[in-house]
Every structure is written in structure tokens, then in C-alpha cells.
């Protein structure tokens, strides 16, 4: 088995001539937590959307687990185990926390859209759903309506519904965005826990989060890879410091703060 689970070669995305992602060669090693960081507008989200197949690349290839997935659809790559965390809006607000995870489990089994009519069918997934809620620390909230969850806990629910798809590799887009310190710490611990036995790639603004979680960090700037390495290496890199100057959190401060 190759050490690399995800590899891009010359990955490029242009929007009407504007190059948002420029010739990116990214290698994510199996079993690691890999961070994609960069100042605003660096191309992180575009890159994330390319990797999860939500956007087609202008040029370049993406290989996942030895296969060329460049031309595949999001659902196809999800079936191969490369799963993007759902956006919070994908959580059904009027269903309970438990029901949300049961629905996700049912979807994973390729159920028809009639699934929501069959309470009996959904009940079969109850045990597994409760296990997943336990994994993400939401057992106490199982019967709460999803819309009533505190913000930080919604992310945990989103991760539980993603885990229902049994991912081999998890792609997380800013898992701590908009959270309080307390919630950030909880989500960091959660990502560490769910990363066991999996590979995780996350796009993240919060450099403290990246510092605490990532084995390898790729820094993007103006669509291209500026630096790569562990946190200590990239936070000392003069090009990275220069790219972050004038933004809210230069990596060096975060490293010593
Ligand atoms: N659909 C689009 N059409 C045109 N330009 C786009 C489109 N999507 C992104 N861009 C441009 O591509 C560049 C990279 O954007 P992207 O959102 O990928 O960066 P980012 O690193 O995720 O930024 P941020 O940290 O601010 O979210 C930006 O200049 C953005 O304006």
C-alpha cells in the first residue's frame, strides 16, 4: 500500500482567466492529519472543492488510494471512502440529533428517498447512531431537536453524520469556524479522536488549531504552494511570515503565544 492516500499533480483552477489554484502538487500521507492553510483568498476553499469534486479542475489530476478520481462525481468518491464533512445547513433542523445520524446511516446504505417514511427501517440504525453520538460526545443531546443544539455542538453532529458514511479519509472545511475557545478545544479533541485509523485533511484559519492537530501543513498563497512541513517548520519560514504579515495572526505569534 502506498504511503500517499491523496495526491494531486499540477492541480489548477481558473475562473475566467483568474488562477485561483495554481499548479498544486499535494501529497497527503495515509493516517496523518494534514492542514491546508493560507491567508484570505489563498485558494484554500477552491482547492478543497476540487479535492471533494465539487468543482472540476481546469488542469491537473487527483489520485485517491491509487485511482484517478479527477473525473468522478462527489458521490462516487464518497463511496470510495473520501468524504467531505457536511455543511451545518445539511443537518435537518427539525429532526432530533439522533434522527439526524440515523438518516445519515440510512443514506450511506443507499436507501431510497422513501426512507423517512419508514420508522421501522430507521430504528435498525438506532444502535449504530447512538454509538456515533457517543463517539462525538453528543449522547446527552440525542433527543434534542438539532436546531436547539448550541453552535459548537452542531459541528460535532455534522461530524457524526459524516462518520456515518464510514470515511477512510475525511475532508473538513474550517471545523472550528465561528467558535468560542471552549468549543474550539472540544472540536480539536474530537478531530484527534475521529482521526484515529483515518486520514484527515482540513482547511483551517485558526493557526492554533493547526498547530495542535496537524502532522503536515501545506501553506497556500495566491493559489500556489508556498511551503510545506510540520508547524514548527512552516511557522519559521520567512515566505510564510511575509505572506501572513498584515493579517490577523502571523504564524510566529501563534507558535509562541
Ligand atoms: N466561483 C468563483 N469565481 C471567481 N473567482 C473565484 C470563485 N471562487 C473563488 N474565486 C477567487 O479565487 C480566489 C481564492 O478563493 P478561495 O475562496 O479559494 O480562497 P480561500 O483561501 O479559501 O480564502 P478565505 O480564507 O478568504 O476563505 C479568490 O480571489 C476568490 O475571489
From TrEMBL:
Q: Where is the ABC transporter domain?
A: 6-247
Q: Which UniProt keywords apply?
A: ATP-binding, Nucleotide-binding, Transport
Q: Does the keyword Nucleotide-binding apply?
A: yes
Q: Which superkingdom heads the taxonomic lineage of this protein's source? A: Bacteria
Q: One Pfam annotation, family name?
A: ABC_tran
Gene3D superfamilies tied to this protein: P-loop containing nucleotide triphosphate hydrolases (3.40.50.300)
Kindly list the GO CC terms recorded for this protein.
plasma membrane
Q: Which GO terms describe its molecular function?
A: ATP binding; ATP hydrolysis activity
- Could you tell me what this protein is called? Branched-chain amino acid transport system ATP-binding protein
Q: Which lineage do the record's taxonomy fields give for this organism?
A: Bacteria, Pseudomonadati, Pseudomonadota, Alphaproteobacteria, Acetobacterales
Amino acid at each position: 500500500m502506498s504511503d500517499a492516500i491523496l495526491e494531486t499533480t499540477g492541480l489548477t483552477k481558473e475562473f475566467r482567466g483568474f488562477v485561483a489554484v495554481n499548479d498544486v502538487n499535494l501529497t497527503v500521507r495515509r493516517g496523518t492529519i494534514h492542514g491546508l492553510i493560507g491567508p484570505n483568498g489563498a485558494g484554500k476553499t477552491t482547492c478543497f472543492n476540487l479535492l471533494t469534486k465539487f468543482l472540476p479542475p481546469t488542469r491537473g489530476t487527483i489520485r485517491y488510494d491509487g485511482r484517478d478520481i479527477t473525473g468522478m462525481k462527489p458521490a462516487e468518491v464518497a463511496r470510495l471512502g473520501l468524504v467531505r464533512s457536511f455543511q451545518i445547513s445539511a443537518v435537518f433542523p427539525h429532526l432530533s440529533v439522533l434522527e439526524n445520524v440515523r438518516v445519515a446511516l440510512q443514506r450511506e446504505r443507499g436507501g431510497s428517498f422513501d426512507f423517512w417514511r419508514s420508522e421501522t427501517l430507521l430504528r435498525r440504525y438506532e444502535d449504530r447512531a447512538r454509538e456515533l453520538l457517543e463517539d462525538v460526545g453528543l449522547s446527552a443531546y440525542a433527543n434534542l431537536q438539532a436546531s436547539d443544539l448550541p453552535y459548537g455542538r452542531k459541528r460535532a453532529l455534522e461530524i457524526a453524520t459524516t462518520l456515518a458514511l464510514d470515511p477512510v479519509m475525511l475532508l473538513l472545511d474550517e471545523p472550528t469556524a465561528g467558535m468560542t475557545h471552549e468549543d474550539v478545544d472540544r472540536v480539536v479533541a474530537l478531530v484527534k479522536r475521529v482521526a484515529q485509523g483515518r486520514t484527515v485533511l482540513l482547511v483551517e484559519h485558526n493557526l492554533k488549531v493547526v498547530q495542535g492537530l496537524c502532522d503536515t501543513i501545506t501553506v497556500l498563497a495566491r493559489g500556489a504552494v508556498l511551503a510545506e512541513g510540520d508547524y514548527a517548520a512552516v511557522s519559521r519560514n520567512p515566505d510564510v511570515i511575509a505572506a501572513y504579515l498584515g493579517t490577523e495572526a502571523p504564524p510566529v505569534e501563534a507558535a509562541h503565544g
